[in-house]
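QA checklist item 7 of 12: single-chain prediction sanity check.
[x] sequence parsed
[x] length recorded as 256
[x] structure emitted
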Amino acid sequence: MRTMQFIRLTDLDDPIIDKICNVLKNAYSNALSVFFIYRDPNYKHYLCGMIERPDVYVFYVCDYLSNDLTGFVLLEVEKNVVYLRNIIVNHHFSHYNIGSRIFYRALNIIKNERNDVDMLYLDAFTKNSGVIKWYLSIGMEINMYLYWYDITDLFETSTIDTDDIDRYFSTQFVVDVNGFKKVVFNDQEIGTLIQEKYLVVKTLLTKDILNCIKYCFFSVPLLSVCLMSNEVLNLKLIEKSAQLVVNLKTLEIKDY
């Protein structure tokens, strides 16, 4: 087995950050990836902010021979829960069990540093059946599903269906602390703009919300809109992901 360097990322000037951003940007199918923050120009700034936080752990693996980025993992700790936000493996090294090695090694480090953590949550797309099968095999369970819908067709008509059109002029585009642009209406966050062209919505589609999104089509050059929901809806499904969970006290964490 080739020898790999397992390194915690703390240096904001480390050129590996650009490699991680590029890997994430191209890691998923185009149908869904346009709605991911990884495609937004601001993502590097966001990632650097995450790296600086004491409750976030970013590890990467490089090959000793080629110095190629072979994989990385990002985990966030909130109270007693560990959230696995990202784990990516270079497909050229997939037969070296990089994924499981960095998964277990990162968890070992966190458990050694934080005695209070006892739960692990992560999300995986259901089309990656092999990945989900592996997580289930180590004792994780599916807690819930998340559905990603393309709702662009709902806004083919350019008319805002209301007599009170002026009220939607109060729709704001607000940059949050991480640098991402949010759509806000009546102090309610409607969604996040990615690359100024793609809107990700995470709220119920009320009449006000639909009209607000229609207004966005007038204000910015929107190309498509994605709705993230825990419910099965009669809408165009792009992808489906599963949230998996396990009690870390019952998980056998291998020593790598």
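[x] summary fact logged: DSSP finds six helices and twelve strands in the chain.
[ ] second reviewer sign-off
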